[in-house]
Design brief:
With 253 residues, the protein is of the alpha/beta class. It is 28% helix and 21% strand. The protein folds into two domains: 107 residues, no CATH class; 129 residues, OB fold (Dihydrolipoamide Acetyltransferase, E2P), CATH 2.40.50.
Length: 253
Amino acid sequence: MSRQAQAVVLLLLGGSVLKASFTDVYLRYVKEGLRPFLIVAGILLVACAAMTLWYDLRRRGPDGHGSDGQDGPDGHGSGGQDHDGHGHHEPRVGWLLILPVLGLLLISPPALGSYAAGQAGTALTGQETEEYPPLPEGDPVRITLLDYAGRAIFDQGVTLHDRRVQLTGFVAPGPDGEPILARMILSCCAADGRPIKLGMSGDVPTGVPADTWVEVVGRYTTRLGKDPVSDVDIPYLEVESWRRVAPPKQPYE
């Protein structure tokens, strides 16, 4: 790979990172708070590509064979060329950088969904010691799956009694074949994504395919299930009503 080819690859990579950063595509890979870092990284890649092209063209000179007035190591004006007359080339493995570029520019992968949720255990694996504050005002009150699951498991539903909650997630197959409500949470990026899983009773969404996003309204129930992957308790929600919704711009919690 020549130096000019390296610069072109860097330019494409930086441009694809910037393109993803200025649209909602980046939300499928990383948390929302990492957007400024992606923009800075994309700008640096583009700047490196521009500097590499400028340096290479300047070194070659107007005739394309080396800088004017500069002799090569052999004293005969080789201008950065090998003794056999060929320019320096880097390993061809650098062309593999084209793959993430094509992935960002040509492919729009979906966010992690039911398949990823079925392969990993629920993220509620550690005992939390914090006290949960009362739920905000409203009926129903909109909360996240993580908040509901934490209150149901670690607070025994104390702050959920006599309250209706509204949750948004995607439908995934449960351990007994019944649908569950799930949503992925990220620590940093999609590579460390783990699911929050809720069992459902009552007016359960049936007849909808996996990965369908739904909004459910329901109440706390003491019923618990078991995650077959990690053997951890899964809380349930007594569903009173549900409806299909479009996938949210931010699919992760």
